[in-house]
Design brief:
CATH class of one domain: Alpha Beta
Number of strands: 10
Distance between the termini: 40 Å
CATH topology of one domain: Rossmann fold
Helix content: 40-55%
CATH architecture of one domain: 3-Layer(aba) Sandwich
Bound molecules: NADP nicotinamide-adenine-dinucleotide phosphate
Strand content: 5-15%
Number of helices: 11
Amino acid sequence: MTADENLKHKDLDGKRIAADMNAASNDDVERLKEGGWAPRLISVVIGDVDAVEIYVRNQKRAAEKIGIAFDERDFPADITEPEMIAAIQAMNADPRVTGIIIQRPVPEQINVKRLQSAIHPLKDVEGLHPASIGNIVYNEIELGPCTAMASVHMLRKTGLSLSGLEVVVVGHSEIVGKPIAFLLMAEGATVTVCHHMTRNLAVHCRQADAVFVAVGKPGLVTGNMIKPGAAVIDIGINRIEDAAGNGRTVGDCDYESCSDVAGWITPVPGGVGPVTVAMLMHNTVTAAKRQMEFYGNTFAADAWTTSPDQNGGRG
Ligand code: NAP
């Protein structure tokens, strides 16, 4: 085997993992449609459409591939927060809308947390409503935050047992790092959370069987910080320019040096990103199922095909 083949062997292929998840979601979409409950996702963009274009395009493509209707609603950059909340409440009240995504960033006069809180929890497909985030502490993760759920799903794909695993999470944001730590604790992992005040990041990382990195700093984690054979889940997405001025997307980990020592590594692009979109679709299906159940349809919930593993093994 050549050195290159060796490296590829270690890659956790996000596109392949996403394709498996989408196939399961697709089966459930068909069943939802048969039950008269076709999932419909609304993408809310406020102001700068160009800034979010690539995310919206990827989500739309994934949704349409598995039969989920995807509507784009663009709002003007000078809309007020009360007007935006009223628009969200109208979507909450519309039974044809089963899921709502708020694309970030939003203009500064809008408080994105207040907007997210205005979404009905049953339609919170991003899993970012305070109720969804809080439920993680109770180990109820039917609608968990997509990136965190996707990252933990990728670690499971290594086949490592999470019970007793030493894991370091670098970055403690509300929507990525902290939820990852809670999801891992629920699986019995021993979790250390690092942030910008952590005194010696390398010492913590080198002891870990798995390292999650969600910071937004290219090259923050290098191969000499990784224990041989450990899993590296790189969540960062950064645009950098080489000396010739060519732009490319990289993660927070130095891929070359980390992949030399890691047992598994998620490439950027092509790692956590596609699985996050697949998790959004999975959540969209889950949200539609819950609405169908909540609003009184008789329904065999245990007949769904979606993998229970995506709900942390709790079905
Ligand atoms: P964020 O809200 O800016 O949080 C960054 C975190 O990194 C903070 O907790 C910060 O800690 C910590 N940090 C900063 N400098 C550090 C250092 N030197 N050492 C250790 N920790 C440090 O960002 P985010 O929303 O969590 O996103 C993080 C990255 O993931 C970004 O690159 C983003 O683009 C990417 N992302 C990817 C996906 C995906 O689908 N793949 C989804 C969402 C985000 P303090 O608060 O203590 O400073």
